[in-house]
Structures are given as C-alpha cells and as structure tokens.
Amino acid sequence: MAGFSGIYPMLYALYGADGKLDREAFRTQVQACLRSGVHGLAVGGLATECNKLTTDERRRLMEWTLEDAGGAVPVSVTVTENTQAGQIEMSKAAADSGAKWVVLQPPPVKQASEEELIKFFGGVGDACPIPVGIQNAPEYIGIGLSNAGLIELNRRHPNISILKAEGAALYIGRLAEDSGGAFTLFNGRNGIELIDNLRAGCEGTIPGVECCDVESRIFELWKAGKTDEAEALFKEVLPLLMFLMSSIDHLLCYGKRLAARRIGLDAVYDRTPAQAPHPFGMQVMEAWSRNLGAL
User: Fold this and answer.
1) Predicted local confidence at residue 138, as pLDDT
2) What is the mean pLDDT of residues 74-82?
3) CA-to-CA distance for 239 and 230, rounded, in angstroms?
4) How many CB atoms lie within 10 A of CB 188?
5) Is 80 exceeded by the pLDDT of residue 2?
6) Pseudo-torsion of CA 199, 157, 126, 150, nearest 10°?
7) Distance between CA atoms of 199 and 169, rounded to whole angstroms?
8) What are the residue ranges spanned by the domains of the chain?
9) CA 215 and chain centroid, separation
10) What is the 3-state secondary structure (H, E, C) of 268-293?
11) How many CA atoms lie within 13 A of 99 on its CB side?
12) Class of domain 6-288
C-alpha cells in the first residue's frame, strides 16, 4: 500500500486572454487549494485539459505545481503520453521534480488486449522510481482494465499500487474486495460519491478545485468518526457536485468558472474548442453554490 490519502484536487489549466497558460492565475489556484486544507494536489489529468496541452505545457504545469506547493502536500502527476517511452520519460521527470506519485492514462488504442495494456503499464511502472497509479476510466477514456487485469498488473509489477478509478461506489466496493488491499484506492467523478467511496474502502478522491475545501472537511470529519456531520455536509454540496459532473466538458465549463470565482479571478478564458457557458447553466451553478465563499 502506497500510504497516500485524502482530497487531491485536480488543478485546472488556466489561460490568459492571449491563449497561453497564465502563471499567476495558476499560482493563485494552488495557494487557494493549500489554504483550503487539501491533503495533496493533482495535475495533468482530464480536468487539466491534458488533451489540449503540448508536452511542454504539461511539464510546465507540473513544475509550477511542485514549485507552488513547496513540499507542503504531496503532488500526484497524471501522465498522458501516448507511447511507453514517452510515459517513462515523463514519469522520471515528475519524480526528479519532486512528485510523490504518478498516475498513468492508457494509450489511445481501444482495441488493445488486456495483456497488451498490462505490458504497457508494467514497463512504465518498472522504470518509475516513485509509486505508480493507473487511471481506470473506461467511461471517460474508452479504455480500461477489468478487476482481474488490474490485480494481475499489480502482481507482476508491485510498484503499480495505486488506482484512480472513475466509477460508481459499487464498482469501488467490488474492486476493494477483489483486490484484497493490493491497491491504494482513489475515485474521481468530482467526489459525487465521496461518502460511499470512503465506506467502500477508498483512501480519498481526486475531485475538482471548486469544492475542495468542503470535500476536505467531509474527509476529516469521516476519518474522525463524525460520520453524521460528514454526511450532513455532503448532502449540502451534493446537488452542486452532481450538476458540475454531467460530463468532463461540462465540468470544465462550469466547474472552472466556479473555481475562478472562489479564488478571485476576474475572467475565465477557454482554449478552443470548448463548451460555452449558457445563462441558465450559470444560474443553476450560482444557485447551488451561493453559500460558498472565497477559497
């Protein structure tokens, strides 16, 4: 078991009016997350718009995150390169820069067999000097491993000991039971099943930035045995989380705007193509988030 736990918000890529990554806005985001009591930071995943970033930009965001975190909390880096050599290079760069663990996304080959995916991930895991996780998100990426495939991957390559799932709580519960504690389990999905994930055996979740303070508080209450308080707070924020997590594009549209409001940014600039906010969508977001102040 890797020993990581808690709330690790996936940081947004923030752009300026010129379309380039905005260094100061990103620093503001990291500082706000740290103030909110998060247990770690994550960067480079779907909510960081990894598919809209160059390799240089992904590395830059990783380096900015580690610089701004300053060792205050562990940093997880999602690795999205399409080749095994590229993932090995990026994983080693993350380790050299101070990341505590990496999460590998599968290569974009939807017809790849489980054995081929195991070989792909295993080669990266064996070459990586820090703990390795797998993002198993067939619902969002279209590629994934079965529970049996994940267990076999860990058996052959024990350094692959973390799993970032993107599934319902029942799936998490079955995976925890099937794997017998081989993986440190995190779920994503913006924390919409945070309480049930913790019940099922998750060590934490990787949500968006916009509600990371509330989710960190829920986690702390749950771990302290104050389950009634944790559930009550979760019920307050759940409608907002459900609205935001309609899809990844929807989260990037509205979740990023809510995060920007809470960290004090004046404007959000999208990198095209992107979902545009609708006035009613903004109305719904504001209604469910009206009690959330600054991060």
Assistant:
1) 80
2) 98
3) 15
4) 26
5) no
6) -50
7) 9
8) 6-288
9) 13
10) CECCCCCCCCCHHHHHHHHHHCCCCC
11) 30
12) alpha beta
Dihedral angle sign, alpha carbons of residues 22, 210, 143, 202: positive
127-130 long-range contacts, Cβ below 8 Å, gap at least 24? 127/88, 127/91, 127/92, 128/88, 128/91, 128/92, 128/95, 128/102, 128/159, 129/92, 129/95, 130/91, 130/94, 130/95, 130/99, 130/100, 130/101, 130/102
Which structure tokens are listed for 193?
């099943």
CA distances for 202 relative to 3, 25, 188, 210, 229, angstroms: 12, 31, 11, 21, 19
CA neighbours closer than 13 Å in the CB half-sphere of residue 291: 8
Q: Is the pLDDT of residue 1 over 60?
A: no
Tokens of 208: 């968006």
pLDDT at 271 over 90: yes
Going by C-alpha positions, the residue among 231, 252, 255, 230 that lies closest to residue 241 is 255
